[in-house]
Amino acid sequence: MSASLFERLGGEEGIRKISNDVVDLHLDNASIAARFAGSNLERLKANVAAFFISGSGGPQIYEGKDMLAAHKHMNISDQEYMAAVDDVMTALERNGIGATEKGEILYIFYSLRPQVVGV
């Protein structure tokens, strides 16, 4: 049996590192940084990690808002969404994640797009 995406991303420890990097990249990304101004960064990083852990097959059950509820009325543009996805890909690269896993994550993010962009 092949390893789950959760395992291939380094389990909880690896995903927490990736998630922290994603949030840090978002904060440095001029295209989307303003969206995170005033955020509780500790809580944001924990929520991103919980979402990744649960969504990748990990044991933790995500109890946060679903994507639509979390982004409703934010009117996120395609450009902002792609900037965020680019940050995720950069974080994966920085953490030595392979092409197969990056492809799987990219697929997930493209499937979530309708729940985030323009809602």
Structure description:
The chain has one domain (10-115): Globins (Globin-like), CATH 1.10.490. Helix content is 61%, strand content 0%. The longest helix has 18 residues, at 11-28. The chain is an all-alpha fold. The mean pLDDT is 95.
Task: Quickly describe the structure.
The protein has 6 helices and no strands. It has 119 residues and is mostly helical. It has a single domain, classed as Globins (Globin-like, Orthogonal Bundle).
How much of the polypeptide forms β-strand, as a percent range?
under 5%
The CATH superfamily appears as Globins
Radius of gyration: 14 Å
Quaternary structure state of the chains depicted: single chain
Question: What is the number of strand segments?
Answer: 0
Low-confidence stretches at least 5 residues in length (pLDDT < 50)?
none
Overall SS class: mainly alpha
Look at the structure and give the CATH class: Mainly Alpha
CATH hierarchy: architecture: Orthogonal Bundle
CATH fold annotation: Globin-like
Output the number of helix runs: 6
Helix content: 55-70%
